[in-house]
Amino acid sequence: MLLSLVNDNQGTIAETLRGRILRGLRADTLERGERLQSARELSTEFGVDHRLILAVYRQLADEGLVEVRERGGVYVAASSGGTSESSRTMPISWIIDTYAEAYARETAPTDVAEQMRRSIETVRLNAVVISSTDDQVSGLARELREDFGLSVEGFTASALAGPALHTAAIKRANLLIATAATFDAAAELGERFGKPVIPIDVRPDLVVGEWAMLLRQPVWAIVATPEFGAMLKRFFANVRGIENLHVLVHGRDDLDAIPEGAPVYVTQRVREALAVTATKGRLLPAARTISLASARKILDFIVRANLRAVAVVNVADDTASSRA
User: Which of 18, 107, 134, 264 could form a disulfide with 281 if both were Cys (CB 3.0 to 4.6 A apart)?
Assistant: First the structure.
């Protein structure tokens, strides 16, 4: 039982640190060769023995993500080995399984990469994201652009009730994406303009994973609106350590209140529109928030739309060849 608990902790912490490093590299909050927190510092953050953190770091070193230097600390690996940051998140076993599954379905592994590329890159799709606050709109738009390759415009539900600035964007859109709180408003627009609507949920493991561990110590969140600050408080209301979450509204609260080196979450809205990129604290890389179930719905739409476009191109090519 104790060994199982240790293994579970190691797996959770490894996933958390791996995600932090990869997101930090993509968001430029980390650089290759940069020194990472020590095992003792992280043992305090996660509330575990420092030897468990060392085991996690050795695991990440085996993956080529970090370098553990004897008596010199732990550093982000100096080289990606010629691969992109996103490709490093795919284990070799997963790649092999994908090729093997293709082979089992009478598809040559050499054809898989091109088919996969066509299924997601043939057409550029437009989306409109609708959420409750500016912070959430900006964060979801970033994820939809970076992770799904969508061209995204976003609006709050309250903005939809104002002047019809959103009409042109919705007409251009291939789909509307909405949170649970704004789905009804999005569904009404979808029906009016003949657009499909995909509801999305937040990853449930944010509550029981990284943030549950972060909130064992004081954490600061810099947000653009008080409404999003209140939303964060509600989302983590049942997490032990919620009293450690300190929300500061940019432009209203004193950011100098953040202690040196303290973990700080800054919303995408604050990073982009208000140009806050650093504080005295330790900037946490932006986390993915869209749940796996919601991601599958979005990917289902993207892949089907792309494969329809591929079929149209193939028919056009066949017609042109027959005429020639």
Answer: 264
Q: How far is CA 232 from CA 98, 136, 149, 238, 288, in A?
A: 38, 10, 27, 11, 15
> CA distances (Å), 204 to each of 99, 112, 266, 291, in order?
30, 32, 20, 7
| 245 phi, psi to nearest 5 deg | -85, 115
What's the pLDDT tens digit per position in 189-248? 999 999 999 999 988 777 666 677 678 789 999 999 999 999 999 988 888 889 999 999
Contacts of residue 129, Cβ cutoff 8 Å, sequence gap at least 6:
137, 140, 141, 144, 152, 153, 154, 155, 176, 177, 178
Virtual torsion, Cα 126, 205, 265, 134, nearest 10 deg = 40
Per-residue pLDDT tens digits for 85-107: 444 456 677 788 889 999 999 99
**153's tokens:** 């415009």
Identity at 91, one-letter amino acid code:
P
Measure the CA–CA gap between 302 and 307, rounded to whole angstroms.
9
C-alpha 232 chain-centroid distance: 17
**Whole-angstrom distance, CA of residue 111 vs CA of residue 103:** 10
**Is-contact 228 274, C-beta < 8 A?**
no
- Count CB neighbours of 41 within 10 A: 14
Residue 247 phi/psi, 5-degree rounding, is -100, 125
Inter-residue contact 110 to 102 (CB < 8 Å): no
Name the β-bridge partners of 153. Answer: 128
- The C-alpha torsion from 120 through 123 and 128 to 129, rounded to 10°, is 10
Percent of the chain's residues with pLDDT above 90: 42
* Long-range contacts of residues 4-10, Cβ cutoff 8 Å, at least 24 apart: 6/52, 9/46, 9/48, 9/52, 10/52, 10/55, 10/56, 10/59
